[in-house]
Structures are given as C-alpha cells and as structure tokens.
Amino acid sequence: MSAYAGTGTLLRLWLRRDRIMLPFWLYALTGYVASTALGFRSLYDTPASIHDFASGITSNGAMLAFYGELRAETLGGLVSWRLGSTGGAMVAVMAVFLVIRHTRAEEETGRLELVGSTAIGRRTALTAGLLVGVGAAVTLGVLASIVLIACGLPVAGSLAFAAGWTAVGLVFSAVAAAAAQFTENTRTARGLALAAVGASFALRAVGDAGPGALSWLSPLGWTGELAAYAGERWWVLFLPLAATAALTAAAYGLADRRDLGAGLLPTRLGPATGTVRGVFGLAARLQRGTLLAWTAGFALYGAAIGGIAEGADDLVRDSGGTREILERIGGSGAVTDTFLSAMFGIIGLLVSAYGVQTALRLRGEETDTHLELLLATPARRPSWTLGHLVWTFGGIVVVLAACGLAAGTVRAASTGASSDIARLTGVALAQAPAAWTVAGAAVLLFGLVPRASQAAWGVLAAFGLLGQFGPLLELPQPVMDLSPFTHTPHLPGADAPLVPLVWLALTALVVTVAGIAGFTRRDLMS
C-alpha cells in the first residue's frame, strides 16, 4: 500500500473539522488587508501626505523594528510596510495552529490511531495536515491579491505582497510539521513552532532597525526583501520555497523514524511522588505555560508601543485624517495620549483572546475525558471550574500589567518622566473589565450550550468590530454599546470614570456565575 493512501479522504475530513476555524482565519486576515488598504487610501491621498508620513517612520527606530522598512513612498508601499511583517506573523500563527491541530493533536488524543487502523498510509496524516496549512496559505494569498487589486493598487505589487504572505504560510506549515515530530505533547509542539515565529520576528526587527543582513535570516524578513510595490524582486521567493522543501523533507524523515504517538525527544519522567495538590494545583500546572507565553509576548508588544509613541506627533502632524481616526478610536486629547489610548484599546481586544483561550480549556478537558476521570475522585465541578477561572481572570490582569509596565518603562526612558510607568500600567489595567466580560461570555457558552463553546471566538470578533471599529464605520451608538469595549474609558487622554468599569466587572461576574451554575446542572459531554 502506498505511504500516501487515503490522503484525499483524510484531507476532506480535516477540512470538515475546520469548517468554522479556517473561514474565520481567512475572513479576519482578508478583512485586515482590506481595512488597511482602504484606510491608507483615504488618509494619504497625495504624494505630499505620504512623504510626510514616511518621514516620521524612517526617523523612529521603534517603528522600524515593529513594522519594518518602508521601501516605497507610495500607497502600495505603505500597505506593504504596515502589513508585511505583522500580518505575516499572523499568517504564520494560522499555519502553526492548523498543522499542529491535524498532526500532533490527533496523535495525542488517540484519534489518529483509530484512523490509522483503516486503509491509510504511514505518511497520510502528515500529508493531509500539511495540505490544510498550505491550502489555507494559498487561498489567503489569492484573496489578499484580489482585495488589493480591487482597492486600486498595482497588480504586480499586489501579487508580490500576496505571494510573500503565502510563502510565510508555506514555511511555517513546514515548521509546524517538523515541530510535531519532536514531542508527544500538543502544547509543547505548538510552543516550539510559535517560538520559531517569535525568533523570526525578532531577527527581522533587529535587522530592519540595525544590521540589515539579519533580515535575510528570517522568513518574515523575506516578505520585506521581496519589495512589493518597490520594483519587485521575485527571485526572493526561492528562499521560502527552498526552506519549505527542506523542512518538509525533514518532517517526513523524522516521522518515519518514530512510533505513532511518540516524540523524538525523550519523555521526561515525573517525580516519584505527586506534586500537584488539588484542583487548583492541577489548573496551575495546565495553565501556567500559557500565561507565561502571553505575558512575555505582551511585554514585548508594550515595549514597542512605548517606543513608537515618541514619534506619534511626527506621524500625524500634517494629517488631519489620521488625527481624526485616532480621536475616533482613542478619544480627543494630546496626540501622544490619543495614540496610546487607541493602542491600548487594541491591546484590550487582543488580551481578551487570552481570556477566551483559557476559559475554553474547560471544554477541552471535558471533551478529552480528563474531567470524567477527575470527577471520579473527591473533586467537585465548582471547585474545578474556579481553579481554571482564577487563571483566566487573574491572568488577564497579569498580562495587561506586564504590557503597561513595559510600555511605561520605555516611555519613561525617552521622556524622563518616571510617572509614565504607573500611568500606563493603570491605562492597561483599565482594559481588564471588558476582557473579563468576553471571558465570562465564553464561560456562559461552556456552561449552557457546550457544543457551541467555540462560538466564543465569534463573540470576541463581534465585540471587537463594534467596540474598536464601530466609530470608524460610524455605526449607531446603541449598536456600539452592545460591545464592552465601547464602555472602556479612553485613557490616558481622558478622565477615568469608574462607573462603567464597575458595571463591566459586575456583568462579567453575573455571566460567569450563570455559566458555572449551568455547568453544574448539565450532563458531561453534552
């Protein structure tokens, strides 16, 4: 029997399982491209306005490190600069999640062993998983190029930009496939692949802000070196294609050398006696890695924002449109404060994703049958649920505090005002009640309609659209008020009313308690 027998059948199964997740990724990233292109087109409609904006970018080292080098003072150049590296990182994350989901996760749960008892080849599962990641990257590239061309950007540059994103998806699909061979734990495999994404972004950032040669060592740097809208260098695409081929060959070779369900790295033996104490200790063991990763990532993100804020005045001094957009998102006030308010509003939205992820860990433990075994002990549902939710709601505070502290420290280093540390930390923490509300909605779905738990991601997307982009879309205020992010005060450029924050916290408490109550009354695996 061929080593690839049954690949088409298994691929159809994987795509059916991704019928919600995959369209969500494609919709979100394509919308990101469209909104950025349309926004830049409306804000910078003359060569003079583009030149003024570009001058602020090239003089700001933090901006270069975060977004990369602006290679052409054109509308297409701005779009490529804004989306190339940060958007490419999102594409890489998409590829990692998709491929790990259909390779290592299937092995860890035992489903692949059942599938393997049918007429499929040894390499079928890995091939089908890779095809999902590759197919998603190619589809995204096609959609992105269509959107950019429809926005009036040059065809060659649009195709080059889309090819850069597709190439990133190909490389990190192969990275994820290789990482899945090293460990028998899904989260460890995903962590290895995401660490590669972070290292790639860091190399690109250092290269664009300093020695340019380092950018050539990063797959995310290759998107910039492709020079979309700036005299495209198509030959650069051979680098990601060669890397993809090498990593894919390595993944197949490693997969052939190991047993199903095992990893190449030896499993670390646990202690002779158990060290986990109760359901709270178990929750800590399961959730601490996620919290550390999010905290480290947002500390870096906060530091970047603190550095970029120094040049906010230069970026918008001659652009009334940009100033108006910032004021819609972040309120009125000094330009720097308005910029920081807008950025921390986006951070609040992103941190809500941490809340949803950790809250949905409850459903994952249930569907993996771990909870059923645990409840055979003296453990009870309410205490088990609270053990995880401490990390959900407390973790939101920790991540926001780390982000605000990092932003304040960098900001204070540039301004000499030590008060910025406490001020920006407080601004970040003001986002917590809205993030708690979103996490509470995830708990409510878990408790009352567990089969629809994944819809919490759709709730987050809807709240984000209403709260962050509702002002830009000029939606009616009653509609925008449905989002908890609408009620977060625009700090640091405005007063800090406590009443909305208190109401948000109470709302989060009520929906969370309702979710816990529903969970204690329903059947497991319902």
UniProtKB/TrEMBL annotation:
Annotated TM spans: 20-40, 79-100, 130-156, 162-180, 192-214, 234-255, 291-309, 338-356, 389-408, 428-448, 455-473, 501-520
The entry's keywords: Membrane, Transmembrane, Transmembrane helix
Domain of life: Bacteria
Name by which UniProt lists this protein: Exporter of polyketide antibiotics
Origin species: Actinocorallia longicatena
